[in-house]
Amino acid sequence: MNTPTHPLQQALDEQGLFVLDGALATELERRGADLKDPLWSAKLLIEQPDLIRQVHLDYFVAGADVSTTASYQATFEAFARRGLGHDEAADLMRRSVQLACEARDAFWSDPKHRAGRRKPLVAASVGPYGAMLADGSEYRGYPGVSRAALAAFHRPRLQVLAHSGADLLACETLPCLAEALAITDLLPEFPGVQAWISFSCRDGEHNSQGEPLADCVAALDPVPQVAAVGVNCTAPEFVPSLVERARARTSKPIVVYPNSGEHYDAVGKVWQGEGQAHDFAAQAMRWHNRGARLIGGCCRTGPDDIRALRQAALACGAIGPR
């Protein structure tokens, strides 16, 4: 019996570049949401779900082939600190996927949006252990936390999100290989589920904990349920080198969705410094030329960046039959 082709692999088989969405939390803030809270964007799953749905829809209209859900900071531990029980927390995680699916279906129901497009996918965001700590450690790492402890942290949320109706998992902003391996240890518990794994990186060679990215992607290369590997929430200046290093050590598609290049102050919960995303689409085409297949934006990017990316990709023929 032939194994069915996963939706992401089918899309990559049919088009050269797969466009991801941009930031969710910082886009919600731009629209007036107050996210200075340990729950970050997951706070709005409780307070303003309609706003989350609208941002997803706007990214689809802008040209995203996939939208990533508002579950990055949605953990049982974080919701428990807010006084929510296990069942309530699980319902909110499922709601994050439902909102993205509703936006996708609304987009796809409009005939004017369907011309030249594939039906978009929904990726359930699986944020790192550091996101639950809400102290910025996903940009530093946690060498004292064991792989077994990280697996124990991730298992309950994966049990919800793997059966939530999402097309795949986006395991993102991981600062270290141990966390990536903890997640891949769990994936066989969910047959048929695929995930992309993306690391936060401190420079053009190392993840946030200081391990060579090349070694990390090589370690993940044999894992069949890992659909793509790469980097996210990393300064754009580091992406070309990181893509080349990753491409040399894996046969899997490379995913990149950097932030704007500003620095996040986890204490003050504000972004500082100068952004590097003013020519985002042009940079993205250079990343594609170096081998990236899935490209979008992370913190401080928005629908305008994704629209420009898709237009640039169409102009140079990056989107279309391979």
UniProtKB/TrEMBL annotation:
Key word Nucleotidyltransferase present in the record?
no
Sequence positions that bind Zn(2+):
C233, C298, C299
Instruction: Using the record's annotation, list all stretches that form the Hcy-binding domain.
Output: 6-313
Q: Biological process (GO) annotations? A: methionine biosynthetic process; methylation; S-methylmethionine cycle
Pfam annotation, one family: S-methyl_trans
Q: SUPFAM superfamilies under this entry?
A: Homocysteine S-methyltransferase
- The protein's name: S-methylmethionine:homocysteine methyltransferase
Q: Does the keyword Cytoplasm apply?
A: no
Name what cofactor the protein needs. Zn(2+)
Specify the superkingdom: Bacteria
Q: Which residues form the signal peptide?
A: none
The protein's organism comes out as Hylemonella gracilis ATCC 19624
Q: Give the Gene Ontology MF terms in alphabetical order.
A: S-adenosylmethionine-homocysteine S-methyltransferase activity; zinc ion binding
Q: What InterPro entries does this protein's entry cite? A: BHMT-like, HCY_dom, HCY_dom_sf, Hcy_S-methyltransferase
What are the UniProt keywords, alphabetically?
A: Metal-binding, Methyltransferase, Transferase, Zinc
